[in-house]
Description:
By secondary structure, this protein is α+β, with helices and mostly antiparallel strands. The protein has a domain at about 1-105: Jelly Rolls (Sandwich). The chain has nine helices and eight strands. It comes from Terrimonas ginsenosidimutans.
Amino acid sequence: MEKLRTHIEQVTPLSDEEFDYIKTFFTLKKVRKNQFLIHDGDEIKHEYLVLQGIYKVFYVDNDGKEHILQFARENWWMSDYTAYFKQQASTMFIECLEEGEVLSLTLLGREKLAADLHKMEHFFRVKLTNGYIALQKRILLLLSSTPQQRYEEFSRLYPDLLQRIPKKYIAEFLGVSRETLSRLYSNGGK
């Protein structure tokens, strides 16, 4: 649970008593490689904080094509947020790409923490705002840049992920073919 405390304290300091209360809302879950945390159609009761591992959050369209919305790594949050906040069935999948661990938090737990501790309301607002900003940047990058520019930006922001994620998933995330990614990768993005 020390990772959780460190993660929260990057946004707001906590007393020992506050953290003792906060940690009661979280459940540790070990996740195997290739295990799914969420399937399309699941009732979504949790959001997850990644303690260890890499996860892919994706959607499968009517033609069976996979669309990766997010990779989540250590200290990142993930869920099907539409389903989580609206308490409805998921339209997404979350798959673990490496052996991992997550902390899960229910919506009821999140709401109670935010109501009981202003620090946690502030923490969740900061995390949600940062996630929204990252999502907007990703959408703009997909809409207005070349494959080379998308690859360069991904490489700049997440150099460690290039070694941890299979190239076919990186290509999918960037919206390019596997062949295009291989060409960009072998040219160092140039």
